[in-house]
Prior knowledge:
Layout: H1 3-24, H2 42-52, E1 56-58, H3 65-69, E2 83-86, H4 90-103, E3 107-110, E4 125-128, E5 135-137, E6 144-147, H5 152-162, E7 164-165, H6 176-181, H7 189-192, E8 199-205, E9 211-215, H8 220-226, E10 236-242, E11 245-246, E12 250-257, H9 261-273, E13 279-290, E14 293-304, H10 308-321, E15 326-332, H11 334-341, E16 349-357, H12 363-374, E17 382-389, E18 411-419, H13 426-441, H14 462-467, H15 471-481
Helix pairs in contact: 1-2, 9-10, 9-12
Amino acid sequence: MNAPTSRRRFLVTGGQALLGVAVASQGLQWLTGCSSPTTTDPSQIWMDLDASLTGDVFMPGSMGYFDRARPWALQYAGTLPAGIAQCADEADVRTCVLWAKKHGIALVARSGGHSYAAYSMTSGLQLDLSRINSVAFEASTGNAVVGGGARNKDVYVALRAKGQAITHGRCKEVGVGGLVLGGGIGFNMRAHGLTCDRLVSTRMVAADGTVLVCSDTENTDLFWAIRGAGGGNYGVHTQFVFAPFTAPNITVFNITWNAKHEDVFTALQQMALSAPNTLGMKVSVIATPSGVLHTLVVNILGQLVGTDADLGALLQPVINIATPLSSNVVSMSYWDGQEFLSEEGDPEYSHERSRFATSALTSDAIATIFRNMRAWPGTSVAGTWKYFLMGGVINDKAPTDTAFVHRGSSMITSIDLEWLPADEGNVLSANYAWLDAFHEEMTPYTSAHCYQNFIDRRQTNHLDAYYGSNLDKLKRVKQQVDPTNMFTYPQAIPRG
C-alpha cells in the first residue's frame, strides 16, 4: 500500500480515530505486559502501520470499519477497536505484533469473531485474519493446509471439491482457528475425533515476532497446549495443517416432538449413549414465546453414516413413545448434508453456559431440566437447554494427551439464552437470573468442567472449569512463549 492511499483513509476518519488511538495508548484493561507507550503523534504511528502492511488498516469512521468491528455477540458491541489491521499474510501479522509491542498497544486476533464472550474484541489493535483464508492440499500427504483466517464456509468449499472432511462446526462464519484451538466439536467428532485431534501442525507468530512451527516433533509442549487452550493465549496462528478423512454418504435429520417431553428425552438419551460412533447429534429442549405462555419442544439435529432405514431402527423406540410433530430425514452425499445441517452464524444477542456430563443424566436431572424450561421467564426469541453427544474416539485419548482435559465425557450440556434489544431491562434481568440459577442447579448432575469454546464471562471458576488438572502445564508453556503476557484477556491463561 502506498502512503497517499493511507493518508486519504486517515483523513476520512477525522477526530474519531484520533480519540480512539489516544484511548488505546493509555494502558488498556487487557494490556498487562507490553512496553510503555511511545509519545509519538498517535495518528502518525497508525499511518506508519498502515504503510508497512500489504493489507489495510481501518479506523473508526472509515468505510467498512463497523462491519469488521462488530462482534458476533451483539451485547458486547460497546467495545470497539481503535484500529483494525486486515492482514494479508503472515508477514503482516508479524509486523502488527511487533508494532503493538513497540507502542504498548493491546492486540487481539480475530479469525471468525465468534468468541461467545467477545474476547476477540479490544479497544486497541484488532488483527482481522479474514484474508488469510486459503485452503489447499499437500500433494505428498493429502493433508489440508488451512489459513489462520479461514472460516467453516471456506473449508466447506475446498473440502467438498476433494471429497474430504475434517471435524468442523455448523456455523459457516465461525473461524477455524478459534474452533480448533479450543478443541472443536462437530457431528464427526465421535467417529474421527475433535477438530484439534485432526491437527498435524500449525504456524504461530509469538509475542517477540518469532514464527514457530508446532507439531509432534517441533515445539511439542506448545503443540500440546494449543490443542485445547483456546484462542488468544499464546500467539497468532497463521496456518493449520489437518489430516482429513474421506467424506461419506450420510443420512441427516431434523426431528421435533411436542408431546411426552420427558419420556421422549429419556428414550433419546438411552439410544444416543449406546449408538455407534457414526451418529452425531444435538438434542435440544427449546422454549419459544407463544402469547402469555411459551411452547416447549424436544428436537434432534444431526447425521448418521448409514441409510434412513438405519436411522429409523435407532429411533423406533422413541417414535413408539410419541409421533414427531415434524420429521425431515434425508440420505445424501456428505457435503450436501452439511448444507442441510448448517446455519450462517450471523451476529445475535445470546449467552450460553455449559457443563460437561460424564454419564447419563439421571431422572432427577431430567426433571430439573424440564422444570426450569417450563419456568423460563421468556424473551422475544428463545431459551434452550441442549446437549451435544460426545464419546467415541474422543475418549480414546487421555485427559493429559492434549490440553483438552474433558476426555471421558458423554456430552456437552448447555443453556442458551437468546433475546432482542426490546427485551433489555427487567425482562433480560429476569432471564439472566433464570440462566444463572439453572446453571448452578445442574451442578450435581454434571462435571465441574465447562467448554472453553463456549467461553463464559459469568463463569467464576473459569480456569479450573476450562482446564482442570492441565492448568499448571498450560501456565508453564505461557511463561515460556509469552513471558510479558502480551496475549491476554479477562479469562486468559496466566503465566506460571
